[in-house]
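dumping these here so i dont lose them again. two proteins, back to back, each one seq then structure tokens. dont judge the mess
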Amino acid sequence: MRKILIVLALFAILLTAISCQRETTSNVSVDAIWEKMRETAAFSQPSEENLLDCEIAEKFGISLESIKDGKVFYDRNPINADKVIIIKANGDSSVEKIERALSSEKIRLVDALENDSNQQKKANNIITKTIGYYCLLIISGNASELEKIFDKAVR
């Protein structure tokens, strides 16, 4: 009886450890993900910033040690607040730090856009998401479509 309980306890611990692991994702570059999203994003004046640049990463409150790959894609058109941030984290603890930084960016964007009647709908539909080591923030009129493309790209 005691041996059965020990085996059951070990089995439960093993199942817990397996279920706590990060979701397995494909090993795709941020540029490859963006390439799949670019047409749907339809930025009129596309631009990008590399999050592996220390100044850019700091602007978003992310340390370079947390980032394996990352870019900010945005529309330079001043009447358009569209932005897509895609980051591949270095590990589990990095994912948590990046998620906090993207949540802060989401709050900042909502605050900045709350008085802009043209952008309020976008501000209310900002998407932040993590799959495995890939973290995402989207503000766009096409946010749900871009999210679906991201999901397919990293799985």
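---- next one ----
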Amino acid sequence: MLFGNVQPGVLKMIMLKSCPFCNGKPKIMVREQKFLGQYENGKKDKLLGFYVRCNRCYARGGLYTLYTDNPNNELGIKHAVEKWNCRNYDQYLYYVNNQAVFNIGDNNE
């Protein structure tokens, strides 16, 4: 079951970066995950997946799953946004004359 995007009132203090591939506008998505096994502590909560998806190119950030019945769960939204907003370009870049160059392989050559 796809819940779609999160209610607007929950997003008051959340800033989403634009898509790193197409500069499109992202939105937070929630969907029910398939779950095989027993629920923790006898709870009947659903296993929901939170993620951010670009509306233009449909690129998707990392998935964060959580046992909850609430598709507006702040913890799930927070982790999905953190995964989307995380840009680790610096670990792949080095700078030559103040210009970024991608680091492919070892720099020992």
